[in-house]
Each structure stands twice: as structure tokens, then as C-alpha cells.
């Protein structure tokens, strides 16, 4: 583990004999500062008006002599949420690391006792880890441990350090997989990373990489893969992750879009829009990360099955093109509308497999997780878009994820499926059953992140499992195109590991 370890103490007094080399005072500085620190803060304020306004390191008679002030701003205003705490913790953690501290005690104060701050300590810890995370390639070049020098985070309260670390372990897997350049995380190398991440855990990893088998079982996925097949190191694969709970009562079945590079295919991305498309595997990365947290937590009653579709949407003589009709695993004939709308083709086959598998498991819920549409980023900004089907709506599946996202600092917003979404993908002739996409960019298409959900339902055969069917299957489509990287900067932004925390908070907290 190269992320900071959590150490939990009952009180500030109980930390006296510990070898911390900095203390982080984190909270709303318009509220009273704890007695142990009030004198230091008051003195510093006389010299520096920034005290309480921005993150600062002041010399003080605390562990290591370093007191780092981490103001959150007002936590009681209407739009404040727990990310005020993770942001402040992250900024202060960078100061701590730059100052040379390796072991920081975090003291929270002035946190309103409101539901939105229920998970303040956990969120502060994850904020520190997010801020100090370094990319996999950077760690591989410089050596593990050379860049991430903060090794311990102390926290105070009745806290569960195993849970904090289990979530961070998952987030780290998600960031590593999402953020890497396209050759380092070509499909087979993505699969190898998963095999290592789940070695010696109860999660079973299966890699399907036989091209004939893939062609037979995942034909839409293989249409996307077609132009990559000529280059051996770019060959596609499907990774299946399974966790069987000892006394399963509920099952999550997740499909992850793992397009390791998206050139757009024959509808090639132009005008500089290709840069950053190595991050188009963020959905598969997020799902793998969540399963990593499952592997750490080993829930007793929750089983999880995931399928990750790892493929490069290359361009070449054998590239699939618009107008082609491809019959998916579900038997549904799909007319290709645009080859840059490839993620939904990958997901449709994965979802179709999960739909079949669902009948073997208790209380199944299905999810697709993907950096799917520019429209989601336009409509939601930095928030994950959740689009539930009828049975998911009836069971409040998206609402419960939304609530967890708010409290755990991985926020999402809900979008509703409408009749216009189905109209958009209706077949225009009897030659096909559905159209994958319109021809324009999703960001300039009305309902550009909702209508792909209609396509996914039809192409995966899930339209036969609505609320009016004999076998209703709750299904939520999760579009992380706006939330997957910090600042919406697909080329350089640090991966956020969404929706690991949201799902872990909803399904795994003890
Ligand atoms: Zn694309």
C-alpha cells in the first residue's frame, strides 16, 4: 500500500506520545478553534490576515512544530457540501508534503452536526489521498514511495480505519486504470493490472481474449475492436470479476466501458478533440475500483459481478463504419449511426451477458458505468449522471446512490428517461431494430446523455425487463463523462475515481 495509512485515536490527548511531524487543523475558522490550538491561531492572526482564510503552515508547539491551518469556509450555507472538507484537506496535505512532513495528525473542528457532514472524517482522508496521488507511470519511473512521501494520517474519533482504507484502495485502482496512457494500459495490460490487484483476494478474475470467442459472444464490442485486431498489442479483451458473498441476499451486476483509446474510429475525432481519449476507460476503471473495495470489505450478503469491455477504437482499413448493421449478443440488430458513439456498443454486449447472468443471482441490480457522452458533462458539469429504468425508479436505486454520493463526497444527479429518448433510436427500416446514434456530437444533441440509455436498454435486451414485464430488472446507467477527471480536463486532469466512493457508501459501509 503506497497511500497513507490511517491511525485512529480516541482524543487529541491520546496522540501525545505518537511521532506525528505535523498537525492539520481542519474546519470552519469562523467558529471557535479548539482550546489546544486557540492561542497559536490567535497569535498567527495578529501577524497574518490570511489565517482562517486560506491554507497556511504556522510554527507552533504541536507535534513536529508544524501547525497547518486548513479552512473549509462556511459549511452552513445553502450550497455547501462535504467536498468543502475534502478540498481543504487536500490543499493542506500538499503543503504538509511540500514542507517535508510524512505523518500528519488531522483535527477536525466546527463541523455542523448535519446529515451532509456525517462522513466528514472519511471524506477528509480521501481528500488527502486524492490530492497526493501520483500517476502510475510516474511511480513506475521514479520508484514506488519516492513521490508519495506522506505515509500516515492520524484521525480522532470512533472511526473505522479499515473502511477508510478499503475505499481508498479501490479509488487507487480506479485512478491507476483510468489515468494511464494508452500503451501502458492497452487492453491486455489492463487485464494484467486487474489480475495483480485481485491476486490473493476472494474476487475471481476471468480474461476472455480469444478473438473467435469474443466475435461470437460480443459482436458489437468486436465491431469497435475491428481496426485494432491487426496490431497484436492492441487486441481487445473482456475482463470478468466475480465476488460471491457467503450468504448472498443481493447482487450488483456492473458493466464498465473500457475504451483504452478512442480515436473516434472512421468518424475520426478532429480539431484536437482526440487528446485525453486514453481516459475513455474510466468506466471500467471505476467498476474495477469498486470491486477492489468489495474485495477488501468482503461483504457477507452482497455479491458482485462485473464485466469490463477493454478495447481500442482504432482507425484503419478494417474500421467499422456508419450504416453497418451488427447483430449484438442479445440478437438485436443495431444500425451504426456514428463510430465515435462506440461506448454504448461495448456496453450493450456486456449488459446483455449480465442480463442473462442476473437470473442466477438473488435480487439483481444492473449498472453501466461509462465516460459516455460530452452531453453529460455539459448538462451536469462535474457531477455523475444517473439514468434509472422503470424498475430502478420503483426501487429508488438512483435516489439511494444520489444520497450516498452527497454524504460521501462523490456527488451525482438524476436524469429521467423519456419517450423522446426511444424515438431517437427507433429503427428507420425493417433492416434493423435500433439506431446507435445520431451523427452530430452529443454535446450539441438534445437529450444527448439520456437517449443513449434508451439505446442500451434496447440493444442489451433490457427493454424486455421493464416494470410491466414478468421479470423486472432494476438498471441504472451511470455517465461519468463530467465527473471522471478533475476540472473536466480529460488530457491532464487527475482521475477522480468516481463512482467508487458513491457505490461503496451506498452498498458497503458496515
Ligand atoms: Zn467515442
TrEMBL record:
Gene3D superfamilies registered for this protein in UniProt: Zn peptidases
GO-annotated biological processes: proteolysis
Domain Cytosol aminopeptidase: 338-345
Gene Ontology cellular component terms for the protein in this record: cytoplasm
Sorted UniProt keywords: Aminopeptidase, Hydrolase, Manganese, Protease
InterPro entries (UniProt xref): Leucine_aapep/pepB, Peptidase_M17_C
PROSITE patterns: CYTOSOL_AP
GO terms for MF: manganese ion binding; metalloaminopeptidase activity
Family statement drawn from the similarity comment of this UniProt entry: Belongs to the peptidase M17 family.
Name assigned to this protein: Leucyl aminopeptidase
Amino acid at each position: 500500500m503506497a497511500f497513507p495509512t490511517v491511525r485512529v485515536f480516541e482524543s487529541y490527548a491520546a496522540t501525545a506520545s505518537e511521532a506525528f511531524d505535523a498537525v492539520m487543523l481542519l474546519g470552519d475558522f469562523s467558529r471557535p478553534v479548539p482550546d489546544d490550538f486557540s492561542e497559536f491561531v490567535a497569535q498567527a492572526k495578529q501577524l497574518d490576515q490570511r489565517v482562517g482564510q486560506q491554507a497556511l503552515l504556522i510554527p507552533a508547539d504541536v507535534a513536529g512544530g508544524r501547525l497547518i491551518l486548513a479552512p473549509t469556509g462556511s459549511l452552513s450555507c445553502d450550497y455547501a457540501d462535504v467536498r468543502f472538507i475534502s478540498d481543504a484537506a487536500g490543499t493542506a496535505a500538499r503543503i504538509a508534503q511540500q514542507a517535508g512532513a510524512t505523518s500528519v495528525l488531522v483535527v477536525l473542528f466546527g463541523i455542523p452536526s448535519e446529515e451532509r457532514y456525517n462522513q466528514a472524517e472519511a471524506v477528509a482522508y480521501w481528500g488527502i489521498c486524492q490530492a497526493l496521488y501520483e500517476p502510475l507511470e510516474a511511480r513506475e519511473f521514479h520508484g514506488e514511495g519516492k513521490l508519495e512521501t506522506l505515509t500516515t494520517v492520524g484521525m480522532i474519533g470512533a472511526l473505522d480505519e479499515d473502511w477508510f482504507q478499503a475505499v481508498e484502495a479501490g479509488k487507487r485502482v480506479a485512478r491507476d486504470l483510468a489515468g494511464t496512457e494508452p500503451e501502458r494500459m492497452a487492453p491486455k495490460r489492463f487485464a494484467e493490472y486487474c489480475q495483480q490487484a485481485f491476486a490473493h483476494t476472494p474476487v475471481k478474475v476471468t480474461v476472455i481474449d480469444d478473438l473467435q470467442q469474443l466475435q461470437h459472444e460480443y459482436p458489437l464490442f468486436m465491431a469497435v475492436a475491428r481496426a485494432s485486431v491487426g496490431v497484436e498489442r492492441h487486441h481487445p479483451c473482456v475482463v470478468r470479476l466475480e465476488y460471491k458473498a457467503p450468504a448472498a441476499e443481493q447482487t450488483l451486476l456492473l458493466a464498465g466501458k473500457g475504451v483504452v483509446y478512442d480515436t473516434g474510429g472512421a468518424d475520426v475525432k478532429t480539431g484536437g478533440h482526440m487528446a485525453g481519449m486514453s481516459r475513455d476507460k474510466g468506466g471500467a476503471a471505476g467498476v474495477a475500483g469498486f470491486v477492489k473495495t468489495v474485495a477488501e470489505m468482503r461483504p457477507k450478503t452482497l455479491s458482485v459481478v462485473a464485466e469490463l469491455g477493454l478495447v481500442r477504437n482504432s482507425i484503419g482499413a478494417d474500421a467499422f463504419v456508419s450504416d453497418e448493421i451488427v447483430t449484438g449478443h442479445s440478437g438485436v440488430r443495431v444500425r451504426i449511426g456514428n463510430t465515435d458513439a462506440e461506448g454504448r456498443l461495448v456496453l450493450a454486449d456486456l449488459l446483455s451477458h449480465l442480463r442473462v447472468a442476473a437470473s442466477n443471482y438473488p435480487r439483481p441490480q444492473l449498472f453501466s458505468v461509462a465516460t459516455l457522452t460530452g452531453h453529460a458533462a455539459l448538462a451536469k458539469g462535474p457531477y455523475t449522471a444517473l439514468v434509472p429504468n422503470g424498475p430502478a425508479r420503483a426501487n429508488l436505486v438512483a435516489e439511494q446512490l444520489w444520497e450516498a454520493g452527497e454524504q460521501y463526497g462523490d456527488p451525482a444527479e438524476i436524469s429521467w428517461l423519456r419517450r423522446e429518448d426511444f424515438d431517437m433510436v427507433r429503427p428507420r427500416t425493417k433492416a434493423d431494430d435500433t439506431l446507435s446514434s445520431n451523427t452530430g456530437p452529443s454535446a450539441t444533441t438534445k437529450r444527448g446523455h439520456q437517449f443513449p440509455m434508451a439505446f442500451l436498454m434496447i440493444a442489451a435486451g433490457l427493454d424486455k425487463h421493464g416494470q410491466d414485464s414478468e421479470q423486472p430488472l432494476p438498471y441504472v446507467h451511470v455517465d461519468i463523462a463530467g465527473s471522471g477527471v478533475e476540472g473536466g480536463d480529460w488530457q491532464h486532469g487527475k482521475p477522480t475515481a468516481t463512482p467508487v466512493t458513491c457505490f461503496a457508501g451506498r452498498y458497503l459501509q458496515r
